[in-house]
Amino acid sequence: MSSKAFPQHQRHPDRGWGILEHGAIALGTVIVICIVGAWVWSLWGKKSVGVEVSNLQTIVTNAQQLKQTQGGYNFTSGTTMTGTLIQQGGAPKAGWTIQGTASSGSATMWNSYGGQVVMAPVATNGFNNGFSVTTQKVPQADCISLATQLGSGGAFSAITINSTDYSDGVVSAEEAGKSCSADSGMTGNNTLVFTHNG
Question: Which residues form the Type 4 secretion system PilS N-terminal domain (predicted)?
Fold first, then answer.
């Protein structure tokens, strides 16, 4: 039988995937990476708040060891009180940094946001019976979390968020949301002051 009876179809060479298929896969990959990245970022944010809460609680507990029987917290300034706390090993070990020589008595503490943390004596009726902890450059979301978490434990007699005072030391999420300022890009703009008496 002649080959002309059965016409043969010419086969086209396989040219692989087209640009549309590659583009769809690339887009899908980017979306998955973004979702995973957002999830990791949210976990990291929760971790940073947890570290900040723990560190603030640690320095409050350790600062109580600085109280002298007669004179209370007998320090001339926040610089000397903070430096002495660091000198005696009372600074947190995780998440914060110490600048300067710890043994000098003049080193400084910095939180995980890059803001300075200062402890200072607080005078009541002429005696330094309390102290304050000031932490700076706190992002808005963390500002709300820190204020509400630390404001619900009863450890502080007063909390100040930027210029707003909560003299009973209790801050609701709604109140914190109104008092905590928005960030400037990736930098937090909030200063929180926690006051402890006793």
Answer: 50-197
pLDDT in tens, 28-59: 665 656 454 444 444 344 457 999 999 999 99
Is 107 in contact with 86 (CB distance < 8 Å)? yes
- Cα separation, 145 vs 182, whole angstroms: 14
Residue 60 tokens, joined = 């409050």
CB 134 within 8 A of CB 63: no
Q: What is the pTM of this model?
A: 0.75
Between CA 85 and CA 91 the distance in angstroms is 7
Which residues, listed in sequence order, are joined to residue 120 by a DSSP beta bridge? 132
d(CA 41, CA 142): 13
